[in-house]
Structure formats: C-alpha cells, structure tokens
Specification:
With 333 residues, the protein is mainly alpha-helical. The protein has a domain at 64-268 and 275-290. It is built from 13 helices and two strands. It has helices at 3-41, 48-73, 81-98, 103-126, 132-151, 166-169, 172-176, 184-202, 204-221, 226-252, 263-273, 285-304, 309-332, and strands at residues 156-157, 254-255. It is globular.
Length: 333
Amino acid sequence: MSTETVDSGKRSVGELISSVAQQKLLAFAGLIVLLVGFSLASPNFMQTANMIAILQATSVNGVLAIAATLVIIAGGIDLSVGTLMTFCSVIAGVILTYWGLPMYIGVPGALLAGVASGAFTGLLIARFRIPPFIATLGMMLVFKGLSLAISGARPIYFNDTPGFDLISRGSLIGYFVPSLPIPNGVLILFVVAIATSYILTRTVLGRFTFALGSNEEALRLSGVDINRWKMYVYSLAGGICGVAGILLASRINSAQPAIGQGYELDAIAAVVIGGTSLKGGQGTMLGTIIGALIISVVANGLRILSVPQEWQIVVTGTIIIVAVYLDILRRRG
C-alpha cells in the first residue's frame, strides 16, 4: 500500500471524526440557545421543578433513542421501539401484578422479553431478508396488538408492588445530596448510555456495528457472519427498549397498553439531531443524549408558553427535517 493511500485514509478518518465533533458541538450549542431563549420567554422555565421534569421526560425518550442509535449505526432502522417499550411494560405488569411475583423476577422478565423480541426482529431482517423499514413497521403493529391483547386493553397498575415507582421516580442521588433530587430514571439513562458507548467503542460487537453501517458488503466478503451480528444488534436494542418500558411504567406506576406508538419519532429525531447519520456507520451516544435533551426542552418550553399541541408537533417535524438536511450537507461536504 502506497504512502499516498495511507495518508488519504488518515485524512478521511480525520475528516469523519472532525465532522462528528462539529455535529455534536452544533447540537450542544443549539441546546444552550434553546435553554436561554425559553428562560427569557418565561420565568417559570428555569425553575428546579421544571428542570427535573425535563430530565425525567428525557430519561424514557433518551433510552429509546439509544436503542435506535444502535440500529441506525448498523445501517438499519427500527420503527417498533415505542410499541416494544409498551409491550415490555405490559409483560412487567403481567408478571408483577397478575402473577404476583417479586420485582427481581418481573423486571428481568420484561428485559428478557425485549431481548427476545429484538432477536426476532433481527431474524426477520437478517435471515428472511425483509427490509428493516417493513420488518419493524410490521413488528410495531404486532407489539401494539399483543400489548392490547395480553392486558385486555386495560391499564395494569403496580399499586401492589411496593417500590416499583421508585425505579424511575425515586432519587438515589437526592438521598445522599438532598439539594440534587435527580430522579433515578435520569441516572439509569446515563448508565445505559455509558454502557452502550463502551460496547460501541471497546468491543467486537461495537466494531461490527459500525462496519455493518459503513460497508456491509466488505464485511461479508471478509468472512464475517453479518446475519448473526445483525441479530445481536437488534437483540441489544430490544433489551434497551425493555429498560425504557420499565422506566415508563415506573414513572406512571402502570402499564398503559394503548401508548407507545409515536415514541419512535421522538427517538429517531433525537438520534438524527445528535449527529448519527441515517446512512449508518456514524454516531455517538453523547450526541444522542444531547438530541434527546433538545427534544424534551422544545416540548417543555412550548408547553410552558401555551403553544397548542398541534403546533408543537409541527415544530418537532421541522426540527427533524432540518437535522436530516444538515446531515446531508455535512456528508456532501
């Protein structure tokens, strides 16, 4: 290999790293601008209770966005993350409330349901060659229907499961530092983000995840069983959706089988805003967390300013379009 080729490769990697860093910096700057703007528009925005509400809302969407980030980096898409989250919360309700089993069985059971569901989705995509968009669209409806069928289309409450609400609403940090009553849900979000970031940057699964999104055919020609690694990616994403399901159920102290659809839009928006390319092969968990915070800040700020909900949806859609267009410009550059 010539020195010129090596230098060219180094420049390409350096330009890619610089591009990712610029996108994260741009997203962070946008977050700061939003915080300052809403603070000037309403004195109620920067109150401690409202900041905690924003963090609490970000915990669920942030965890879902982490799951979506894994799949998108691998060159896929997952439209089922929202309803899979609901399905896992319903499974937790069945185990804890209907069967009366303890939390150390119910919570892992819900997480395993997420892993198994993700593995099945990965199987459809990897082995049966169903396009990710179609496979996950179908699974979105399957999970929604299963949630309604298993629960009898009725909410499942966790009133007889002491401590379940503390998973999300309690504050381990606040117990030691009363001046920082940060909910456990936020702490779990950052733990999941750090663990997933470690997997992406320090493990074989992480390297193959980026390779799948960058050049799947080259990976196949090198002798790697890409179908197996795709299933691993979707299984891990499914387990993370299970974490989101537990957080959501804990926050509202119930499993609501009718919610979930629509959450995937906010999750994908957070992923794109955070700099993960929809073409795959590029993204970071830090960028995704920043994107999730932006989505939560925009929703909360518009709500405080009494902007009608329909216009809030318009703003969120506009943000997605702008973020994708910026990604196109960044790659073209």
